[in-house]
Design goal:
By secondary structure, the protein is α+β, with helices and mostly antiparallel strands. The chain has 15 helices and 16 strands. The strands form 3 sheets. Strands 1-5-6-11-10-9-7-8 form an 8-stranded mixed beta sheet. The protein has a 5-stranded mixed beta sheet with strand order 13-12-14-15-16, with helices on both faces. Helix 12 links the parallel strand 12 and strand 13. Helix 1 packs antiparallel against helix 5 and helix 5 packs parallel to helix 9. The longest helix is centred in the N-terminal third of the chain and has 20 residues. It is elongated. The two termini are 56 Å apart.
């Protein structure tokens, strides 16, 4: 019988220990930053009613049209079609409505971290199962919250050690001023209709703002000459955008205005932004994006609620951290290994083990009948800082040999002073 070698599903990856340390560091930095900015963590299911995405993200978006993993009903009494979540905001909005968060003290600031799923063609930096960190603010229409989401994302990336960060910002207006811009945009593109790609011919009628976001090179050249949406903003949207930029100026966040910046999801209004890093050759790497979505809560059945948020692409950020050779603090591994020789030493070693655990020292100890050399080799394989050698003689005298495995030097200490000596050396 031939052996079968199974592979991970296409578009997914294993996170091995050498990379996992970056993931843990990312999560710890993000958690500390967001908690310090007044956000609290929320967890939502990995799958939701598919309608929250088709209604919220938009029927004509690539995500809904091409990329969702749908879970079909399995029985006649369950008629709901579920989808693995392709993004996090819609699920958090559903949770906000379902759990009556509009009755909480406003604004409500939430953050999340988890896997998302999209059925797209796998390529470098793009996976079918990928991770995002996101933050959302509900219940505040002022530019203060626009600034806070930009700043918190910026601060996470800065604290991670990334360099050459920049924010690209724009405003895509509101339902009052956007129709006027749509009219200008359609008029401009209809004059170029013979040069548009097939996707843009559809966008022209169903979602004209996405014309500015096409990846086709010919369409990108056309977009450079398209009308500027900032020229069509109503007074309220113009003031809101200006206030947001003033906050970024005040706090020294590096940004550029990019009038052709649009988001791939229909629910955005007013502020939109993208955070990127630029390498020495001028190549940009987008790390995250977001914006305001004042109509989404109402669209999904809740009360009128202003909201703003963003998401960061974890895989891409970790990739850039490694490209920029960011040094991260290594996690505490095995700090002390107890090497025990003889039955009497077992009793003493258990007491030493309990004392070290109580002081939050990472100690590895399993009673062994192996010899001294074998146990020291095992301690070295664990990358332990120190080995504590307890033989029959040491046990009788309430002493222990402290061996520094990096220098192969050792000293003998009384057990009663051992913990303090180890804590001093670990510092």
């Amino acid at each position: 019988m031939s052996r079968v070698f199974y592979q991970s599903p296409r578009g997914t990856k294993d996170i091995l220990p050498s990379e996992e340390i970056y993931w843990q560091y990312f999560f710890n930095v993000a958690q500390k930053t967001l908690s310090g900015a007044g956000f609290t963590k929320i967890e939502t299911p990995h799958f939701e009613n598919a309608e929250i995405y088709s209604r919220g993200i938009g029927e004509t978006t690539d995500i809904v049209q091409k990329e969702m993993f749908l879970l079909q009903p399995t029985s006649s009494d369950e008629q709901v079609t579920y989808a693995l979540r392709p993004e996090g905001t819609a699920g958090v909005v559903r949770a906000y409505i379902q759990n009556g968060m509009n009755s909480w003290s406003q604004p409500v600031r939430l953050w999340y971290f988890g896997a998302m799923f999209r059925r797209e063609r796998p390529q470098r930096g793009r996976y079918r199962e990928f991770y995002q960190l996101g933050a959302e603010i509900f219940g505040d229409e002022s530019a203060k919250s626009d600034y806070l989401v930009v700043m918190s994302a910026w601060e996470i990336l800065r604290r991670l050690g990334l360099s050459n960060l920049i924010v690209y910002a724009s405003s895509i207006g509101c339902p009052d001023c956007r129709p006027k811009f749509y009219a200008k945009l359609k008029k401009f593109y209809k004059e170029k209709i013979n040069r548009l790609c097939q996707d843009c011919l559809v966008r022209l009628e169903k979602n004209p703002l996405r014309l500015l976001d096409c990846k086709n090179e010919r369409c990108q050249e056309i977009a450079k000459e398209a009308p500027n949406i900032l020229d069509s903003l109503c007074p309220e949207c113009r003031i809101h955008f200006q206030n947001t930029l003033e906050y970024l100026d005040y706090f020294g966040v590096r940004y550029e205005i990019e009038s052709r910046l649009v988001r791939g999801l229909d629910y955005y209004t007013r502020t939109v932004f993208e955070i990127a890093t630029i390498n020495d050759k001028g190549r940009q790497s987008a790390l995250g994006a977001g914006g305001r979505y004042d109509g989404l809560v109402q669209l999904l059945g809740g009360p009128v609620t202003p909201a703003v948020g963003y998401s960061l692409g974890v895989e891409r950020i970790i990739e850039v951290m490694r490209e920029q050779k960011v040094k991260i603090p290594l996690p505490r591994g095995v700090e002390v290994t107890i090497v025990q020789l003889g039955d009497k030493a077992k009793e003493v070693s258990r007491d030493i083990h309990d004392r070290l655990v109580k002081e939050n020292i990472n100690v590895f100890y399993i009673p062994s009948n192996d010899g001294l050399r074998q146990q020291l080799q095992a301690a070295a394989k664990l990358d332990s800082r120190f080995a504590l050698i307890v033989g029959q003689r040491e046990a009788m005298k309430a002493e222990v040999i402290l061996r520094d495995l990096s220098t192969s030097t050792q000293e003998t200490f009384a057990i009663k002073v051992l913990v303090d000596e180890i804590k001093k050396r670990l510092k």
